[in-house]
TrEMBL record:
Record key words, sorted: Hydrolase
Alphabetized SUPFAM superfamilies for the sequence: HAD-like
Originating organism: Gordonia hydrophobica
Entry keyword annotation includes Iron-sulfur: no
CDD domains reported in the protein's UniProt record: HAD_YbiV-Like
EC number, as in UniProt: 3.1.3.-
Any coiled-coil regions, as ranges: none
The UniProt record lists the keyword Metal-binding: no
GO molecular function: hydrolase activity
Name of this protein: Cof-type HAD-IIB family hydrolase
NCBIfam families: Cof-subfamily (TIGR00099), HAD-SF-IIB (TIGR01484)
Length: 278
């Protein structure tokens, strides 16, 4: 399909009501920063009645800190769709079967004992929990979790988990097979070079998109989405105007309808700037 600049034909004239963007590798640069040029675009979208939604595997509380400079309230798709927040209130959430949580805890421990550099974060609505003492892993965990607590035994954390995040210090895609037989019908996605995320059955970023589309009266034809990794696939399917970052995972490049410049080139900002200008 031909394009004018960065925009596919028809997008400038479309009735856009919802813009959904992944964070790491998409909106954020490689230092984890929002481009400064994004903030005036966010104000412009808000003034026009276009809802901008961060959609991430990150914890909600971390996302809220990133967007604290924005004076208004945003909706958030957090924990890869396991938590959907609107106006500071929980709009939707989903829980993992406790037996799956227990099996993942045991599998990570066994793999670590066998010499694999695997670690686990158990995410609940109110925060995240680790039991590892490894400083390198703790640094990564704190980067993504504003609310993080160390516990002696993850299997004894009360309440249901909304997400299980497995960190592989080497290569997450090679470790996913360890969990295939124990997750059952739960959703498992490789969400980055080092991360595997497990969520409840049928739960992914697109379930959050669907909830917010209903809330704002939008369909796929009114939705723009940006992503770069495997946990973004369903989200991109939920938007007629789906953009893969040019440096995205090959499967994401294949699945999305259009391409944006890389996150290092502030590709999300570039596309949105042209859209709002036209």
């Amino acid at each position: 399909m031909t394009q004018r600049g960065l925009l596919p034909d028809g997008l400038a004239a479309a009735d856009i009501r919802l813009v959904v963007s992944d964070m790491d590798g998409t909106l954020l640069d490689d230092a984890g920063r929002v481009p400064e040029a994004f903030w005036p675009l966010l104000a412009d979208m808000t003034a026009r009645g276009i809802a901008f939604v961060p959609a991430s595997g990150r914890q909600y509380y971390t996302l809220a800190e990133i967007f604290a400079p924005h004076p208004g309230s945003l909706s958030y798709i957090a924990e890869n769709g396991s938590m959907v927040m609107h106006d500071g209130e929980l709009l939707a959430s989903s829980n993992i079967d406790p037996s799956v949580t227990a099996a993942v805890v045991d599998t990570v421990r066994a793999a670590a004992a066998a010499g694999r550099r695997l670690y686990l974060i158990v995410h609940r609505i109110d925060g995240a929990f680790i039991e590892s003492e490894d400083d390198h892993f703790i640094g990564h965990a704190r980067h993504y979790c504003a609310r993080l607590e160390h516990v002696a035994d993850q299997s004894e954390i009360p309440g249901d988990a909304v997400k299980l995040a497995i960190f592989d210090a080497d290569d997450a895609e090679t470790s996913a097979a360890l969990f295939t037989s124990i997750v059952g019908d739960h959703k498992m996605a490789v969400s980055g070079h080092h991360w595997i995320d497990i969520t409840a059955p049928g739960t992914h970023k697109a379930t959050g998109v669907a909830a917010l589309q209903e809330l704002v009266g939008a369909g796929p034809e009114n939705t723009v989405a940006f992503g770069d990794y495997l946990n973004d696939l369903e989200m991109l399917d939920a938007a007629e105007w789906s953009f893969a970052m040019s440096n995205a995972h090959p499967e994401v490049l294949e699945r999305a309808r259009y391409r944006a410049p890389t996150n290092l080139e502030a590709g999300v900002v570039a596309v949105l700037a042209q859209l709002l200008e036209e």
